[in-house]
Amino acid sequence: MDIKELVQLKQEAENHLINELLPFWIMRMTDEKNGGYLTHFDEKGNDTGEDEKSLIAQTRCLYTLSSAHRAGYGNGELAEIARHGVDFLLNKMWDNQHGGFFWMLDRKGNVKNNQKIIYGHSFAIYSLSEYTLATGDKRGVEYAEKVFDLLQKYGADTMYGGYWEMFQRDWTLCGPGSQGGDRKTLDVHMHLMEAFTTLYECTGKEVHRRKLLEVIDLLLNRIIHPEYKTGVPQFYKDWSVAPQIKFDIIWGWDRFSEEGQKGNATDNTCYGHNAEFAWLLNHALEILQDDVENYKGLFRIIYDHTIDNGVDYEFGGVFVEGPHSGGVYDREKEFWQQAEVLIGLLDAVILLGNEKYWEAYKNVHRFVFDKVVNKGVGEWYPLLSRRGEPIWTHMGHSWKINYHTVRAMVQSIKRMEKLSK
Amino acid sequence: MDIKELVQLKQEAENHLINELLPFWIMRMTDEKNGGYLTHFDEKGNDTGEDEKSLIAQTRCLYTLSSAHRAGYGNGELAEIARHGVDFLLNKMWDNQHGGFFWMLDRKGNVKNNQKIIYGHSFAIYSLSEYTLATGDKRGVEYAEKVFDLLQKYGADTMYGGYWEMFQRDWTLCGPGSQGGDRKTLDVHMHLMEAFTTLYECTGKEVHRRKLLEVIDLLLNRIIHPEYKTGVPQFYKDWSVAPQIKFDIIWGWDRFSEEGQKGNATDNTCYGHNAEFAWLLNHALEILQDDVENYKGLFRIIYDHTIDNGVDYEFGGVFVEGPHSGGVYDREKEFWQQAEVLIGLLDAVILLGNEKYWEAYKNVHRFVFDKVVNKGVGEWYPLLSRRGEPIWTHMGHSWKINYHTVRAMVQSIKRMEKLSK
Description:
2 copies of one chain form a homodimer. Chain A is mainly alpha-helical and 421 residues long. Helices cover 51% and strands 7% of the residues of chain A. Chain A folds into 2 domains: 1-30 and 271-420, Glycosyltransferase; 54-61 and 75-223 and 234-267, Alpha/alpha barrel (Glycosyltransferase).
């Protein structure tokens, strides 16, 4: 590894974070009139006026601000904006009658969808814990623990283990199929690992540690592919693999066909998730003070799969998804997968010390800075063609916000600092 | 079936309940000085003075009083004594700091053992729900729900399903082995089914119904023997069968050898548990308004195993335990097993309508009334030889109280009434 090159890449990331990404959000996200955050911006960074505030976007913004503040950025300004978002979350999104956060409000704070969705609640735990760690304001962890308790009461499947994911307002479990009440996903369980890690970091409580260990066990022994260690997206309640369908309440991009089912619905893995899972697991082990040596073999398998199949050595960047055994189905480029693979590959360099991960990192780094970043505006394009032409061009949306982009910079800089010493 | 004989047996049971059992307790159980119930009595019914009040004995007394009141006995007096016990439970046994009930107090209400044991908490849920159903006093269900919520938060194993059973005061999970922190038992999960049934009957809440369905699923598909449908006593966390060991905190009779492990530790089933499981399941199905037809095949297997192996056709009554595939290891007679088999066999007569279950019922009924009842005193001997000579002679103790005896009479009378119409 060329240290000069490393330092250059680190500076490029720092410059992007400090002078582009954070300013993009600081100057537009605060909704002074109605509280909370504005989250819908077009290619030029103009507010599109879309009348919604989603639980995911509000909590992810809170995480972004809190974690960047904790990492030393923003001179206190980020903590102030974070507090503004917590006020909105607790005063407007929290359901005082049944507990938990509503799924979707309008800008003024009226409820548009009152369902209780665990995906969103995992980000509530994550961001509110991070907020308390960053600022010392105890309201964050108080509500993070309330959500944790509700999740244990209503969410856990005491027959097969794991968590149910889709509930009505009163925490009645949703019906089967596209309502999602009979499914379990990689996505939710991975984000619960992320959430419980930060909750445990914040509280040090045994029950938070125990549930973190249990969800790691689920991910390792139920959710990732037994042979390839790649993530399997959807399961039935007994952890048999379910065809990957679109839920009525979606939380991400709709990349499904008309029928609401993926092509290759039962043999599909996503490189961004795999790398994200690996580095989040490594971070969890760190917080748990567990021995990473026991997991290096696993990390090697996951990162080798990522660089052997997910990285595009012709046009740069990371593909969307492919079969577990190797190969690619979808060669477009999603912004968040680039973000997660950046962090993961730097983890691989540090943990496994092989030059090939560094080469792959540089590939993705270049693709991000040359193609994905919307120059002069400062945020990332959400979806690009294989060659790097923007397909979707909005900068902010209920499901596309600053969490992946800012976190990728904060975490990558931290890792490159470590490598440069 | 000879109806005249049935009516005679019913009258014998009614006479025992109304003129012997209930008076035995009504006249001695109320601790006017310290609150709660006195629970330690010798063969003559004299207070032994043992200085303890166990969570199990206090909650079981509460269940006994509440359920007998609800069934129409006692002219209101039982409800009054029940209220007296609830006061003690909520004011003295409840842990205001960490939630949940202490395991053991002395008579005055000082804490002797502050651990949180799920076996005892299952009886807290059961008795407090029954108390509210019987009296309308909402304090019962309020605390039953608090215990349910704590159990879901701290007790559920979100990896393998089911519940952990042994905790420290602050709900930290106990260590492995004889501390019990790595084991799961038939006993606790069966009593949780019983508890959730009455909780759901009381609240009608979806989450209580759902957890009841899940624990039934666990009992049917993890806990009873896949072939013989007999109960397997102990498991490791992943539901592999564990050798039956004695825990540091015991909740029943110590019938273990010096080594703290049962003979035949991994091939052992107990007839009283099997019959109790079957009739409690049938009752749960009734409360759930589920179709019993789907379970008749299962009930037939369980009751056939009970009468073919557990009933002593030579000396009368029910043996202690034997191998799953049939046969007997221990031919002594425990009081509670007689009690549960009485109810179960009447269920079998009603559900399956076969004369052989009635003949077996009459056998156990005669053994109970001729040998187990301590004549002139009114309660049952806890343990007898195969021929019916008392081995242990106390009438009350932290682990031997009125719950099995009174419930057996209340439930048997109810079933015989149904059969006599």
